[in-house]
Write a structure and sequence with these properties.
about 35% strand, alpha+beta, globular
């Protein structure tokens, strides 16, 4: 079952990446200041949600949060890279993805690895 979840997550990340890089580049794809202001909110909210799901919560280490592309009117895609240990103590680099609303910095997590 775990392998199926990893495969589905991998396919989702690939599709999001293809979607992001096939959009037209230009001024409309550059995050505005409202979105940049939401970046720390995204980092804080997502970090706390991910920590709750980890078996070794103290091992969480944030690496990077990026707001990467528009996902419709008033929302943007975001990606967070982080590091956490598995139950055997091996540090693994992982990724979470989702959307953020510009109006109130509400987040939706589409996928993340525990």
């Amino acid at each position: 079952m775990f392998k199926v979840i990893k495969i589905v997550f991998f396919l989702y990340v690939v599709l999001v990446t293809i979607h992001v890089f096939t959009k037209e580049s230009g001024p409309s794809n550059v995050p505005n200041t409202d979105v940049k202001n939401c970046q720390s909110t995204v980092r804080h909210k997502v970090s706390s949600i991910i920590k709750r799901g980890l078996k070794v919560r103290s091992s969480f280490k944030h690496i990077r949060t990026s707001i990467i592309a528009p996902d419709g009117p008033g929302s943007y895609l975001w990606v967070m890279n982080y590091q956490a240990q598995n139950v055997f103590g091996v540090p693994l680099t992982k990724r979470a993805t989702g959307t953020v609303s510009v109006a109130n910095c509400d987040i939706v997590i589409s996928a993340y690895e525990v």
